[in-house]
Amino acid sequence: MVSSKLCDISEIRPHLYLSGFRCITEKKLTELGITNAVDVTNIPNNPRYSGIEYLNARVDDDIISNIGRYFEKVAEFVEQARKKGGKTLIFCMAGVSRSASLCIMSLVISEGISLRDAYYDTYDKRPFIAPNIGFWRQMIEYEQKQKGSRNCDEKEEGSFEQ
What we know:
Elements lengths: L1 H4 L4 E4 L2 E5 L5 H7 L3 E4 L13 E4 L14 H13 L4 E5 L5 H14 L3 H11 L7 H15 L6 H4 L5
Parallel strand pairs: 2-5, 3-4, 3-5
Antiparallel strand pairs: 1-2
Helix pairs in contact: 3-4, 4-5, 4-6
Pfam families: DSPc
Family: Belongs to the protein-tyrosine phosphatase family. Non-receptor class dual specificity subfamily.
GO molecular function, one term: phosphoprotein phosphatase activity
């Protein structure tokens, strides 16, 4: 069941979508009205489709990778597209860890919601997301710096439903 869902493009918000690399086709992007895409894979020469504005956020799915350097850049890219009536797809290899982390943080930053709420909003639409522990730590740290308190802690980060 989950493996077939990995090939879905999940709508998180009317302007924000999340997926893995292998499910992307020009036809699907056109049908969904995708205007922008954030590529979080490390695949050189990924196909690029005309009419789509791309942002590269190259990150390894590794607990020591610095995904935090992209939180604000991706949120701004998504928000600018939304303001123009556009739709953004954030994708990595499976749409589970890297792209899910950036999608969650885009919600935290642009909507001002808690990390916990952003996680569950995303999980409700794509119930197999699983940011790696290193990404969780960076998301928690970002929220703590921005809001002055933690909404979730390191004991809890591994206990979210997955």
